[in-house]
Every structure is written in C-alpha cells, then in structure tokens.
Specification:
By secondary structure, the chain is an alpha+beta fold. Among the domains are: about 120 residues, Immunoglobulin-like, CATH 2.60.40; about 50 residues. It has three helices and 13 strands, in the order H-E-E-H-H-E-E-E-E-E-E-E-E-E-E-E. Strand 12 and strand 13 form a beta hairpin. Helix 2 packs antiparallel against helix 3. The N and C termini lie far apart (about 70 Å).
Amino acid sequence: MPPPHPPIPLPRRRALKLTAVTARSAYPAGFLPAPNVALPAANDADFKAGDQDHAVLRWQDLHLAPTPLFFAVLACAVPLLMLGVAMHSLPSIVTGALLLIAALGCLWHGIQTLRGLSLRCSSPPPCFPGDRVMVDLEVGNPAGRSRWDIAVTLGLTAPPGGNGWIDLAPRCRQPLLMPLVAAVRGRQPLPLVRLETQHPFGLVRVSAYWAPRVSLLVVERPQACGGTSVAVSLRD
C-alpha cells in the first residue's frame, strides 16, 4: 500500500527551486515583497533610550482607597435607610439615599478623573552625581470634560511633599518639570510616576502608578588635576 504522502520526485524539487529563484530575481536587488502578516506591536525590546515614552491610564491601573470619611457617610446612610423603610419615614429614606448616592458618586467621579489620562515622558539630559535634573513629563486630558485636583509626584512621595496639584481643561496637555537628584553613576531607570486625586469631597483616594521606560545617564564628574580638568563626554 503506497504511503499517504509520497515524497516529491527530484525533477519536481528542482523545478520548484528554479521557480523560486526566478520569482526572486524578478525584483530589484535589496527588495522583496512584504509578507501579508501583521507586524507585532512594539515592546520593550524595540524601545530606544532616546524615544519619548507614553502611556494611557486604564481601569486596571487604578488603585482605590476609601477614606474614613467614606465609611462615616456609609455608617450614616445605611441606618437611615433601614430606619426609614421600617418606619415608613420618607425624610429618613431620602436623607439616607442622598448620602449613599453622594458616597458612590464620589467613588465614580474619582475613577473618571484619572481614567483615560495620557502620560508622556522624555529622556532627561545626562548629568553628574549629586546634580538635580528636571524630568520633562506631560499629562494630557483627551476627554471633553475638565479634571480637577490631580497630584503628580515622582516616586512614592506623599502628595503634600510632591510637586503640587494640577487641573486639566478639556482636551489639553499640561507640561510638568519634576526634580530628580542623581545619586550614583551609570544608567538608571526613572522612579515611578504617581498620580492621585481625592476629588470632589475627599471620600475616596484614587491613585495610579506608571514606570517610564526612559532612563537617566549619570557620568563621573571631571576631576581637577594640576590646574587642568579632564574632559568627560556626556554622550552615551
């Protein structure tokens, strides 16, 4: 019984090889037709140190932390609702419902304040150990609504010790200069960029963290030798 897939005879193989060579020679030197395959998305391996890194905050990037005031509002709203339903008291039901709506509304508004923000970061210039460099960061609001009371800090610094709070108008971009002190020599990654908001009433703290892929190059400071200084190139 013959095999289900017999081998191709030698003349057939040679014909296929000649056909492939003829098809390749039909194109100019250095040119080949592009395959009909979608290219993979750019990843960390394709990212260069001189590029401008960017990101967009999504649902899964947000961290929610209700404040004690949030639980205090719930502690007042739930008993009022239960008391109003049990005693058929309309004022208690309305008051409890308003408090509950306010708490949940603050939670939703805090999420919408950070969700969808675009972040861009450029590579800072090379520096010497101990120098203070300014990291160029840009926060964009692509939505058609304003966003208020957003704290932007570099690293895990608390908002009061950070770089202040910003407000974003609809469809605008806010440039920021974040100070950073270079500690050791070598190429080192930038610290995390932290965004936080408690808008509008401070009931819920919504925060997000972003790790830019750009890095900071710290080179050795020139040493004075016999009245002359040794030139050090700041190029990578």
